[in-house]
Amino acid sequence: MGVSSMKRVVRSGKYSAFYLLLNLIFCVHSRADSDTLDSLLERTGKRIELFWEQFSAVACTESISQKKVSLDRKVLSERRETFDYLIMMQLDGDELSVEESRLQIGKLEKKARQPLLVTSGFPALLLILHPHFQGSYEFSRLPDEGTKNGRLLRLGFQPIQGRRSPSAISLRGRDYPISWKGSAWLDSQSGMVVRIQTELNQSMEDLGLKELKADVSYAMVKFVSVAEACWLPQVALVDAETPHQRWRNIHQFQNYRKFSVETKSTTEEPQQR
What we know:
This protein is 7% helix and 49% strand. The protein is mainly beta. The longest helix has 19 residues, at 37-55. The two termini are 26 Å apart.
């Protein structure tokens, strides 16, 4: 499938690592044991620079579940959609930008009875730890976490007042930077982000937003023609709350294949791990 045949959905701007749209019409010890915080951030930053290249070189299938629920958690409206998904990330001077392309798969569902929340760009949430944005946060080491596959390192982060944010809310034609706080789990061998959780550091109730949380996980995907496995998004959970409603969106990413822009696109299925 060529790029020209895909419907382009572009969200970009001066804060543009990713966007949330609100429409109210709406074990084994590793070298990490001796890492200082600075050296760990440097190692993680390099992995995320590699992620930047890898994620822009693949296409996948994205499944989105959107739910609107009442404050007593009764589901008021729900919609499920599936897309051919492609993301393009660019660094232009001092600005990062993200463009997402989505092509609907299957029949379009009927319009939901209630307005739903549209969320976009959350696979790139780990760009908080990109070298370009590390200076916007104060990082700290948290207790490591053991898993059946080894040990995960943990970092906490708080925004530094006055520094720019990698993300924004787009509302009524204006962009409002998001002040995130949260934590990240890192693979002890590579330093790559395995999971990142964020929430608002400051209230945005002046925009009608009481709460905004995100939880994004990443995993290794192996391609035949690539010597090193790629760390790519698997699931992004987004929860938002206004004074009268709650939303939960779930983005799932699967069926990754290599993507290249020529006269036509080419794909390569990943090996089964």
